[in-house]
Amino acid sequence: MTTRRSTPKTLEINADYGLIVLLLSLSAISLLAIYGALPLLPFWRSGIDLILKQVVWIIIAVILLGGLIWAGIDRLFTGAIVAYWVLMGLLVLLLVDKYVLDLPLIAPVNGTTAWITLPGLGTLQPSEFMKIVVLILCANIIHQHNEQKRAMTYAEDVRLFVKILTVALPPLVLIVAQPDTGIPLVIIVGIAVMLGISGIRREWILYSLIAVIALVGLLLFLFFNFESVLINLVGASYRLNRVYGWLRTEEYISSYGLQLYQSLLAVGSAGWWGHGLQSVVVSLIEPQNDFIFAVFAQNFGFIGASVLLLLEMLLDLKIAAIALSYKKPRERYLIAGVLGMLLFQQIQNMGMIIGLTPITGITLPFVSAGGSSLLSFVPALAVLFVMSHRIKSKRTY
């Protein structure tokens, strides 16, 4: 009697080539934009070194992405708590350096103590990684809460809010103390989007929108009518100075409004096709990071800026399509929060270049130079690729 041997099934990987093309395109534009920013860098900074480091960061990101996909995304959700406490320790070290004693490999940049130096590679910004880790933990919390929830009540929602605050508030306080307002805003927006689709009562969303609109309206009313009262409330801080530069650009053209005025000149003078690669029309502060969109628009004009904007929009739509097609809630919560963060960063970064929003230190995802911002999105990308693979596998079989 002969026995039939069963042949082992080969592992079929349904790669999302559309997502791959979008990410590679943004990486190529990032390198091109950084190269275009080289003449605008200060004399002490090596431009070629900056590009080489960005290439290294992209390679590390690809390797890390492959490793996380191979290890399985479930480990991301279970191991996030370890990363959380490691990053909390690093944030505390940054605070110790700022307020207690000078520590090696830590130095403030423009008054903000947020980076740890990695010899030979550049700097590491723990808060960038914390934003993703917090969202992963919040996805776990929301998922577990909904599995145990028995009724749609305000009390149940408040219990969820308390759980979220327990995880999110400590790092938010440490990051604001650096001081950094941009990343805390990004984290808050991401959590807000996750809560918006988590199943909480819709009244909370309405109340939150009313509160935000009322607060912004009150601050603008005080700014234009009772400036002294606003200063007494919030203090004469650098954050208020940025509002002066945003809303009274020409009045403060040599101080708080200089960055916005220069970026408007760079973009507004570029025309349809721009001034050409590595053109120097005006000087820009941090052209490789915060003002990378202004540099790209200056070099390639309205057409080039539109192409970059289109790629960012296509990436957002791709992420949304994957999330809408996926059924498991935990991963959907995470990707919804990540999409909210991406949209906020894109709108804020490109908006501040043309004066729609105040200038902050928020970078343009996948385009601005720097390893921390790029690597911080890798765990979310790993989840996206696995979600896409599972969706395609179900359609195949």
Description:
By secondary structure, the protein is an all-alpha fold. The protein has one domain. Helix content is about 70%, strand content about 0%. Helix 4 (about 125-150) runs parallel beside helix 6. The two termini are about 35 Å apart.
Helix/strand layout:
Layout: H1 17-37, H2 47-71, H3 74-99, E1 116-118, E2 122-124, H4 126-148, H5 154-176, H6 182-196, H7 202-225, H8 227-234, H9 238-247, H10 258-268, H11 292-325, H12 329-353, H13 371-376, H14 378-396
Antiparallel strand pairs: 1-2
What distinguishing features does this structure have?
397 residues; mainly alpha; two-stranded antiparallel ribbon; 14 helices; 68% helix; globular; disordered N terminus
Helix content: 55-70%
The number of domains is: 1
Biggest sheet descriptor: 2 strands, antiparallel
Structural class: mainly alpha
Our count of helices gives: 14
Question: What's the rounded overall pLDDT mean?
Answer: 90
Biggest sheet, spatial arrangement of strands:
1-2
- Give the SSE order as H and E letters: HHHEEHHHHHHHHHHH
Q: End-to-end span in angstroms? A: 33 Å
Report a brief summary of the structure:
The chain has helices at 17-37, 47-71, 74-99, 126-148, 154-176, 182-196, 202-225, 227-234, 238-247, 258-268, 292-325, 329-353, 371-376, 378-396; strands at residues 116-118, 122-124. It has 397 residues and is mainly alpha-helical.
